[in-house]
Amino acid sequence: MAEGSHSMADLETAFQKFAVHGDTKATGKEMNGKNFAKLCKDCRITDGKNVTTTDVDIVFSKAKSKSARVITFEQFNQAMAELAPKRFKGKDQQEALQLLYGLIIGKEPTNVGVTRVAKAGAVDRLTDASKFTGSHKERFDESGKGKGKVGREDIPDTSGYVSAYKGQGTYDDKVKEGK
């Protein structure tokens, strides 16, 4: 290999990482158009000027087989060979391709825009049980921990005594006295 050239094994590793991204059934041998576009975006092959997302889609369509929806690693290399001179204008084909591979090798799909837990003040305010009033206040103990079912419903007294009866629990004593 020439000075400054990149190994195909490293390139194939990056290809496989992007090929399986977001697809649980993917083997890493073939890449779909969405993941190809993601690879181009994440590795900064698309720059908005020389190489646009449209260029990437066109090159992908050219590289894949007529009826296929995926490209193999060999087809991926053909697509990269077509994108390289566009991305690095003024460089010869081989040098441009090596620079392009340099952008890809060692990269993994990034999870940009993944939904994170909101840290807004409103959420904290709405979930602070100490600020609750009325019937909702009854659902939590002093520490702010929920009481569960006990705090949500009125549980009827099924002891057999009438509510507010003062002599509750004295029946057995009265029956024994009567004998």
Automatic annotation (TrEMBL):
Residues 135-155 have a biased composition (Basic and acidic residues). Belongs to the TPPP family. It is found in: Cytoplasm. Residues 133-162 are annotated as: Disordered. One of its GO terms (biological process) is microtubule bundle formation. This is Tubulin polymerization-promoting protein family member 2. It comes from Chanos chanos (Milkfish). The keyword Cell division does not apply. GO terms for molecular function: tubulin binding. The keyword Cytoplasm applies.
